[in-house]
Amino acid sequence: MTIMGVREEKPGVRVALTGNESIARGALEAGVAYAASYPGSPTAEVLGTLAKVAGEHDIYVEWSVNEKVALEGAAAASFTGLRSLTVMKADGLNVALDFAGALAISGCRGGMVIVVGDDPAAHSSVREEDSRNLCKVIHLPVLEPSSVEEAMDMTREAFSLSEELALPVVVRCVTRVCHASGDVKLGKIARTEREPEFQRGDRVITFGIALHAMQEQKLTRASALFCKSGFNSYTGPQRAQRLIIASGPSYMYALEALEMLDLSRETGVLKLGTTWPLPESLLLDYLINASEVVFAEEVEPFVEDNVMALAARHWKDIGSITFYGKRSGHVAGPAGPGIGEMNPDILAGSLSKITGAAFKSPVLSGRKGALELLGEKMPGRDLALCAGCPHRASFWSIKTALELDGRGGIVLGDIGCYTLGIARTGYHILQTVHCMGAGVGIAGGMGKLDRFGFNRPVITVVGDSTFYHAAVPALINARYNRSNFMLVLLDNETTAMTGHQPHPGRSSTATGEPADTVHMEDIIRGIGIPCSLQDPYDVEATIDVICRMLQQEGPRVLILRRTCALAAVKGKQKNRVYVDGKRCIGDACGCGRFCSKVFSCPANIWDAESGKARIDEAVCNGCGVCATLCPRQAITVERTV
Amino acid sequence: MPGQDRLKRDIIDRGLCSSCGMCVGLCPYIKTAGDMVRVINPCGLAEGACYSVCPKVSLDLREMDLAVFGREREDQALGVVREIYFARAGENRAAKAQYGGVASALAAFALKEGMVTGMALAGGGVLCPRPVLARTVDEVNGCAGSKYTAVPSLAVLNRALREGMSGLGLVGRPCQIAAARKAQAGNLAGDQFSNPQAVGMALGLFCFWSLSPDFYRFAFRRVKGEEMVRMDIPLEGPVVETNSGNCRWQLEEIRPFIKKPCSLCFDSTSEWADLSVGSTEFDPSWNTLIVRSDKGRELVDLALRRGAIEIAQYPEERLPLLRRAALNKKMRVLGLPEFEDGKPGFPVVGRYREQIEAQWGGVNQ
Ligand SMILES: Cc1cc2nc3c(=O)[nH]c(=O)nc-3n(C[C@H](O)[C@H](O)[C@H](O)COP(=O)(O)OP(=O)(O)OC[C@H]3O[C@@H](n4cnc5c(N)ncnc54)[C@H](O)[C@@H]3O)c2cc1C
Ligand code: SF4
Ligand code: SF4
Fold this sequence. Notes:
By secondary structure, chain A is an alpha/beta fold. Chain A is 38% helix and 17% strand. Chain A starts with a helix and ends with a strand.
């Protein structure tokens, strides 16, 4: 992380930044005044970076309760003429979509940029949604950086474009750009000199079809502007017959693939930095000469479909072209066309299929190559909750309580670290996972099915940040309609999954100023729902209270509160936990290696040599939960305080 | 001996577990809450102590007699009996005691005299009973009074043994006494089982059946939220006393609440206990006390000398009634169409069967 680089005042200097820092810098150079976000990978660090420099540049930076609220706040700043930035992951755009769609009709004033982080291959998401399709639906222009530097430039320029069109502009940035580091040439940081104003009588309203017509005009104008945009560029021979149309990092991959196949001289590459609306006349200029067009983009065939539609409209002028891409099946990763990320090898393979150029896929390529090389030597590694994670203890208690209850109770999941409850690390306990807050809504429905004979106890788990983000309306609904389920609120006192951002339950804001904490207990009790509190590290007591609450009726909430293990040990000396070799009797115990095989905290390991359990002290976070579960009390905790 | 998998399939999943609690906590996978005992995760081992200690499998009556008393019983109704009395607590009777308070008085006395280090009891209120390891007289008195649900109180016994305690005692239902004796018989993995001093005193209760916790909820609704001061189950059927009067049910009304394993159970007087304590079905301020073992005799003698309990002669004419009730229970089980010697849930009756039938002597006796 190079916050120094983001701070650097001297224009023209080259610094190394991550894609996310680069976006933040771009916003600073554009004179952003208001920035709001809900944390989500891959763009979570943008707002955190701005928060660090907010004081010195006098910008307002907030972690909002969710993306819709973030966008609404940012729109307010724009209505008064200030420049504003909103950052969200693709899933967040879904949350904000209702307002975003309305805003695209009403338009905005001060430049308004929405950075959307798409996550091809779903590295840290539940899905790999391609947000460009949604932007098209709601009529918002989209820019797509292909490199770290371009992420900065595009963000900065998107503000001017937004003001020119009186329309928010989306910068769609994929994981490989957000998380990469690159050399960036800085521009000048601009300070807001604007005075916000929204006078009586000013109106920004979404109403009627007249505005729809205006919206279409704005997009037509955007298309014209894009034809002259420096973000679109062409490399290759004049009048190339074979043309690659590439967007995002696929542009870089395309250049590399052509080099590998030695096809650079005869193939043109048209880089599209402005992917919606299409720069139509620019595209037509190149399509006229081409007889073969190859598409390189992530994830869905978005440019591909729209360019093919454009070509169909102009087929008389441009003649016959063969299109190679996801639709034809030629451009496809190992999972199939339109699924997962691109890389130079995939594109080289595709081009080799199309042109017949020889290409030997390098042995050491991607995950498959790595597996081939290391397969034997590398033990398989499951996705796992961290050592000492309170969720592990919570899941163990829920699992135990449901077995004890014996009525075949079900558990519904939600989005957060605890989504890992679908995996072995969470004892495969979660049976549904969809989107932020959905678990509570689904539980609400399940809890109304008794009249049809569905009588299983229903538990739904939701994290603290997700609770504030999207679970509250579902809880209100449950109370109002008297649904019957138990909500277990896994409160680790932070937004852990995206890097420990604060949320309304915390006592400080994004910029570290004191906040008015909104206690979840108050919300829940305010709705009229009974709410109990328990420390999940006390497994026995937790099992007991879950068993008791399972017997109750109506909506009810159990808060399992314990700070995220990583946050808890930060800067502190950890408790020392160790196995007493005299008490642990290894396989003679009859526990079947409970700590390392079943409870499965990553710090509980098996020492083959002594035939006994051991604690990996480097990994252990000192929670001591395993010590309370070991049937022989063989694990000792030395508390530091 | 098989292990957890069979225990789960043969006993727990079939609803045959009487929640004695003996298997709970032997490993991290068998847990209890309320009156429920469940396997929460397979341990993956083919053999396990949990199966061996369960009183609902392979309970061979004759072998148990030999292991505990070194001889076979002559009386098929009550098992090995040395003496039988009416008894009641001395002046320190526990306030909440069910009848004469003998069970609590003896438990407290054994603790006070250092004859045991802790007693596994059933504490908590009737609506929320829980296993307790009592180490003081006050703690024993706090547990007085019958909870008619199946409290898995042996779970605490197990835990204490694992922690290295020894010389423990228990007050338990007959199935619990059987379980503790099975555990005591040894030959089991784990050092807690190889200590012959582990369980020093087994005080058994009379028990014809235990009830599902639903019963208390049902009763609670019937007394319309009034406090249930005391409950008793005399032969005519259950009674709940509240501050404003009594609520009675016919036995038939509460039959649906009887736990399934209890209908298959053979032992109503804790036949392998050192001492057995029950009601008199006659005078609620007294208990029936059966002395079975030398150890039981010693405790009674000492308790008498120190005034912890007092005894009276057992009325000659009541003995046939008690024997009849005990034999009736056994005959009912033997008469069940699904009865099979040693089948999960049933004991191995073996050649005792003929003697039982002979001593019972037919319906008209
Ligand atoms: C489920 C059940 C059914 C019974 N059925 C009969 C019967 O049909 N006929 C009969 O004569 N007697 C029966 N009894 C025994 C009787 O209720 C008294 O417990 C016994 O007579 C001792 O009386 P006390 O005054 O000495 O008891 P107290 O001094 O009050 O002591 C009672 C002791 O029993 C323990 N205890 C209470 N509930 C349970 C439980 N559920 N499981 C294990 N231990 C428990 C307590 O820890 C306490 O130590 C039954 C007891 C139970 C628990
Ligand atoms: S009867 Fe006792 S030993 Fe058998 S399964 Fe039930 S609790 Fe375990
Ligand atoms: S009737 Fe038998 S099985 Fe049921 S609680 Fe009493 S002793 Fe246990």
